[in-house]
Amino acid sequence: MTTQPLRTAIRGVHVMNGTEDLGVRTAVLSDGRIEGYDLDGPFDVEVDGSGLVLTNAFIDPHVHLREPGFEVKEDLASGLRAAAAGGFGTVVSMANTDPVIDNPEQVRGLLEKAADIPGARLRPAASLTFGLKGERLTDAAALQEAGAVMLTDDGIPVADSDVMRRACEWAADLGLVVQTHSEDPSLRGAGVMNEGAVSERLGLPGNPREAEAVMVFRDCQIAAMTGARVHIAHVTCRQALDVVRWFKAQGAPVTCEVTPQHLTLTDEALAAFDPMVKVAPPLRTAGDVEALTEAFVAGEVDCIGTDHAPHTLDEKRQDMLSAPFGIANIEVAFPLLVETLVQPGRMTLQALLHRFQHGPADVMGWDAPSLEPGSPADLVLLNLNDARTVEPHTFLSKAKFSPWEGDALHGWPVQTWVGGRSVFERG
Ligand code: DOR
Q1: In a designed cystine with 21, which of 16, 185, 329, 417 is the match (CB 3.0 to 4.6 A)?
Q2: What pLDDT sits at residue 228?
Q3: Are residues 21 and 71 in the same domain?
Q4: Residue 2 pLDDT exceeds 80
């Protein structure tokens, strides 16, 4: 980023994160870092933080920014700004673009372009196989050298178990995270929603939980076999959770995430044949939402991965069979979970912050987010006091529609800093 960050004071703000609570302070940022607390001026910028919470900006290990190739849905600029509006300071972008991010030049190109965008920091993933074809392994070492932080064919399951094994062997040597889209392609078949009472009622092809559980088992087994750090994306059901729990108990190097939609919506949301909530893996039942919530609250799920998956409104307005899978959510992810989990007292604010900060940092093997002086000034100011309605036309994402339109939520980000530079301010 080009502009020089200014010396900033955020006055009278409650400073806390997933593990620390420093109480009400004046936080001072300079040279891209937290300089300290309750320091003397002069300051170039002063922000009134009274009644607000200042915390480490969030980390999202799973976003689709669509550039190159699908800029009509999202691009780096809109996606990174939308992420900052959601309180995120760092996002890991998926490789299912056109062309696919499968070579080092593309990784470098993304990083160069993102460096000039005032928004969240970009840490790109690269694909595990060339062209997401599931056949030839990409050059993991060269991709890592170029700046890729993860290998994943997300969007498409890696069907060939030996390909998965070889990729994990490389990744284990390099210390790279392998993220999986764990769905057995043949069991999943042409399913467009969860297989169960609702899919039967609607007469739509179902995708059973077993398709997910079987593949999660394989992917965890390969993690145990190779020692690779395998991250299971978007876990949606009790069976898959049980598998992850069992492997974790054996000491396998596996982690997992849940998405905001799988924690808040069920397959009943599709009852009006609304492809807006068509997503892969699919929304499940109320029982699964409860199982995910319990595991998330208990810390058995490592973090939130938004799987922010923007498409155009025209694409999402097609019929249930033709519309693409995916929900855009990065700007509402945190307030949505404040409203559904913290407000009713199911989990503390600190525990939720942990799943957006330390949780994903641990998954990625990055330094723990910290509020200590000297730490990077990647910060977000949150308003927990006032409810605000989801108004998709105000989104910075190109996907200006949302399953949560009209919902009144607490916990909206008010301002986000990345490297001490203000990259988002709610108007
Ligand atoms: O619903 C989804 N949409 N799931 C994925 O795994 C991919 C994503 C996309 O790229 O649209």
Answers
A1: 16
A2: 98
A3: no
A4: no
Q: Which of 102, 219, 302, 307 is the catalytic position?
A: 307
Q: How far is the CA of 309 from the centre of ligand 1 (A)?
A: 6
Q: Is the pLDDT of residue 5 over 70?
A: no
Which atom of ligand 1 has the smallest separation from the CA of 327? 1
Pocket of ligand 1 (CB under 6 A): 64, 96, 154-155, 181, 279-280, 307, 309, 324-326
Question: Which residues are within 8 A (CB) of 105 and not within 5 positions of it... i.e. 6 or more apart?
Answer: 146
Q: Are the CB atoms for 285 and 194 separated by under 8 Å?
A: yes
What number of other Cβ atoms are within 10 A of residue 187's Cβ? Answer: 17
Q: Do 79 and 224 have their domain in common?
A: yes
217 contacts 254 by C-beta, under 8 angstroms: no
397: in domain: no
pLDDT value for 4 = 55
Ramachandran area for residue 203 (φ above 0: left; ψ -120 to 50: alpha; else beta): left
Q: 186-190: which pairs have CB atoms within 8 A and are 24 or more residues apart?
A: 187/211, 187/214, 188/157
What is the domain extent for residue 50? 7-54+374-388+404-425
The secondary structure element, H or E, covering residue 361 is: helix 358-364
Instruction: Say how many domains are in the chain.
Output: 2
Alpha helices in 259-321 (DSSP H): 260-264, 286-297, 313-316
Please give the Cα distance from 244 to 252 (Å, whole number): 9
